[in-house]
């Protein structure tokens, strides 16, 4: 790392755009223990009258989750939604080909939507465009949102739900560019199907927002071309295009892992450029925005054996239950910094997933629920990031990484609302740094702070280790010692850390 003091310039007049509350979404897929013994476990001591775990719901509320995507994910591309409604005793189990698991069909559309409604969470539904198509997608919208007097709306009413659910957000399939996806299609096949399905869905309910499938990752061989081809069919119909990205430490390359936010930043810029290129060609004033509806730290390459290597299992098997460290939590915080800095083009994002499966919340069947280290930066950002994102300018030394080239050693985002200013800072370097917050023409007074520092120990499963990491690496930031001068406040950042600060920022 080249040596110079990082400098961050912020002013209340320089803004990116509003922070949509949907930026703090999550994801519940029928995968592993996300549903069964995750959000739902009848007989658990905290279970409500519907069988949903109250302890998990309380942690979900503390996490600040605004939106939950459902039912997948890869699962949706083999899902017949009609088999998951009506009397539970009449539903038949089926083999989910995505995760090679026998799905009992105990939880389906109604159970999920009513859980989300009780918890004050906006649902984000996905339709199956892998093995199914236009008719089933339009029927599901009618089932969820239709008024009495039509076939599917009347079926919902017969199943005990009189009022429409009014689901606003709809995904047109999932990762259809991926060869692993059941019903995988090329960009032209998918673009035509998404256009036709989306058109029918909007005929049922014109008020819905549609998300077209973007690339499953920036590393896909069709990346860029996929976005432009799909949007050439769907540009006038859809509101958002999806992005998915997961990050992990590989072969001990700590510097590259800490620089993952730079990879996310470049990914967003390239998808925006691809979408805007289609809009320019169409001479359209419409701007397609991004639904970053899968993102997280996931040890996909180093820990997961691959779907094809999973044995056929039942009874909610333990799949992809990554255990997280303080280092992972710092990276999650830094990824949130990136999302906030793109608030003008990323109104929706979903941390994948909510419970047990690469999740901030873990449970034990019949036992307790607990917070993983990644819980803390997400919950703090969701609580503090309000109003509008500020256009923060960062000048910092760079760290050279093998995976991403040069990345800034310090990153920052800020939001401003009637409640005050919130600052989010990451020090990616292995040394403490002093950062100058330059606020010429504005008065900055910082009142509270929180910090997550990285650890150097392997993560261990269980609530005891998670509590140990939280005790050692998560805590308050002492703002009393901050040095403020005329238009400059100096903040000291711990090595490999993520810090959140709140206070006031007003024109001088």
TrEMBL record:
EC number: 3.2.1.55
Family assignment from sequence similarity: Belongs to the glycosyl hydrolase 51 family.
Pfam families membership: Alpha-L-AF_C, ASD1_dom
Signal peptide limits: none
Record Gene3D superfamilies: Glycosidases (3.20.20.80), Golgi alpha-mannosidase II (2.60.40.1180)
UniProt lineage: Bacteria, Bacillati, Actinomycetota, Actinomycetes, Micrococcales
MF terms in GO: alpha-L-arabinofuranosidase activity
Keyword presence, Hydrolase: yes
Keyword terms: Carbohydrate metabolism, Glycosidase, Hydrolase
Protein name according to UniProt: non-reducing end alpha-L-arabinofuranosidase
Catalytic activity: Hydrolysis of terminal non-reducing alpha-L-arabinofuranoside residues in alpha-L-arabinosides
Subunit text: Homohexamer; trimer of dimers.
Chain ranges of the Alpha-L-arabinofuranosidase C-terminal domain: 293-483
BP terms from Gene Ontology: L-arabinose metabolic process; polysaccharide catabolic process
